[in-house]
Amino acid sequence: MIVISRFRVPPERTEGFVGQARAAIEVLSSADGFRSADLGRNTDEPDLWTITTRWRNVGSYRRGLGSYEAKLTVAPLLSEAVDEPSAYIDPDDLTL
Which Pfam families match (predicted)? Predict the structure, then answer.
Protein backbone atom coordinates (compact mmCIF):
# COMPACT_ATOMS: atom_id res chain seq x y z
CA MET A 1 0.00 0.00 0.00
CA ILE A 2 1.07 3.59 -0.46
CA VAL A 3 0.34 6.67 1.61
CA ILE A 4 0.58 10.09 -0.01
CA SER A 5 0.47 13.07 2.34
CA ARG A 6 0.64 16.55 0.84
CA PHE A 7 1.59 19.73 2.65
CA ARG A 8 1.40 23.46 1.90
CA VAL A 9 4.60 24.93 3.29
CA PRO A 10 5.29 28.69 3.17
CA PRO A 11 8.84 29.51 2.05
CA GLU A 12 9.84 30.73 5.50
CA ARG A 13 8.93 27.31 6.99
CA THR A 14 10.69 25.16 4.38
CA GLU A 15 13.82 24.39 6.38
CA GLY A 16 11.86 23.47 9.50
CA PHE A 17 9.40 21.37 7.52
CA VAL A 18 12.16 19.38 5.81
CA GLY A 19 13.79 18.64 9.16
CA GLN A 20 10.47 17.58 10.67
CA ALA A 21 9.63 15.43 7.63
CA ARG A 22 12.99 13.66 7.71
CA ALA A 23 12.58 12.97 11.43
CA ALA A 24 9.11 11.52 10.79
CA ILE A 25 10.41 9.31 7.98
CA GLU A 26 13.20 8.06 10.24
CA VAL A 27 10.66 7.06 12.91
CA LEU A 28 8.37 5.37 10.40
CA SER A 29 11.26 3.53 8.76
CA SER A 30 11.80 1.53 11.95
CA ALA A 31 8.24 0.15 11.87
CA ASP A 32 7.60 -3.44 10.87
CA GLY A 33 6.16 -3.51 7.35
CA PHE A 34 7.68 -0.19 6.27
CA ARG A 35 9.03 -0.45 2.71
CA SER A 36 10.22 3.00 1.60
CA ALA A 37 9.62 6.73 1.72
CA ASP A 38 10.09 9.73 -0.54
CA LEU A 39 10.05 13.41 0.35
CA GLY A 40 9.55 15.81 -2.53
CA ARG A 41 8.66 19.35 -3.50
CA ASN A 42 6.35 20.07 -6.41
CA THR A 43 8.11 21.49 -9.45
CA ASP A 44 5.26 23.85 -10.39
CA GLU A 45 4.12 24.94 -6.92
CA PRO A 46 7.17 25.28 -4.66
CA ASP A 47 5.04 25.50 -1.51
CA LEU A 48 3.50 22.06 -2.19
CA TRP A 49 5.37 19.10 -0.68
CA THR A 50 4.68 15.39 -0.40
CA ILE A 51 5.76 12.53 1.78
CA THR A 52 5.02 9.22 0.10
CA THR A 53 5.47 6.03 2.09
CA ARG A 54 5.08 2.40 1.06
CA TRP A 55 3.93 -0.33 3.43
CA ARG A 56 3.43 -4.09 3.36
CA ASN A 57 -0.28 -3.63 4.18
CA VAL A 58 -2.81 -1.38 5.91
CA GLY A 59 -2.17 -2.96 9.30
CA SER A 60 1.55 -2.23 9.07
CA TYR A 61 0.83 1.41 8.33
CA ARG A 62 -1.63 1.76 11.21
CA ARG A 63 0.72 0.04 13.65
CA GLY A 64 3.56 2.26 12.43
CA LEU A 65 1.53 5.31 13.42
CA GLY A 66 0.67 3.81 16.78
CA SER A 67 4.11 3.78 18.38
CA TYR A 68 4.94 6.25 21.12
CA GLU A 69 7.70 7.81 19.00
CA ALA A 70 5.32 8.19 16.03
CA LYS A 71 2.76 9.92 18.22
CA LEU A 72 5.42 12.43 19.26
CA THR A 73 7.07 12.92 15.86
CA VAL A 74 4.81 11.84 13.01
CA ALA A 75 1.35 12.81 14.28
CA PRO A 76 2.14 16.53 14.70
CA LEU A 77 3.47 16.64 11.14
CA LEU A 78 0.49 14.78 9.67
CA SER A 79 -1.88 17.16 11.44
CA GLU A 80 -0.57 19.84 9.06
CA ALA A 81 -1.20 17.79 5.90
CA VAL A 82 -3.73 18.82 3.27
CA ASP A 83 -7.09 17.36 4.37
CA GLU A 84 -7.67 14.67 1.75
CA PRO A 85 -7.61 10.87 1.54
CA SER A 86 -4.03 9.63 1.69
CA ALA A 87 -3.98 5.80 1.81
CA TYR A 88 -4.14 3.72 -1.38
CA ILE A 89 -4.04 -0.03 -1.86
CA ASP A 90 -2.96 -2.16 -4.80
CA PRO A 91 -5.92 -3.08 -7.04
CA ASP A 92 -4.91 -6.74 -6.66
CA ASP A 93 -5.74 -6.44 -2.95
CA LEU A 94 -9.26 -5.10 -3.54
CA THR A 95 -12.24 -7.21 -2.61
CA LEU A 96 -14.83 -6.51 -5.28
Answer: ABM (PF03992)
The DSSP bridge pattern shows strands 2-8 and 34-41 to be unpaired
Model confidence, pTM: 0.91
| pLDDT per residue as tens, the chain (96 positions) | 999 999 999 999 999 999 999 999 999 999 999 999 999 999 999 999 999 999 999 999 999 999 999 999 999 999 999 999 999 998 887 765
Task: Report d(CA 37, CA 25) in Å as an integer.
Answer: 7
Whether the CA torsion 13, 25, 39, 7 is positive or negative: it is negative
Round to whole Å and give the CA distance between 78 and 4: 11
Q: Quick check: helix, strand or coil at residue 38?
A: strand
| Cβ contact 82:6 at 8 Å | yes
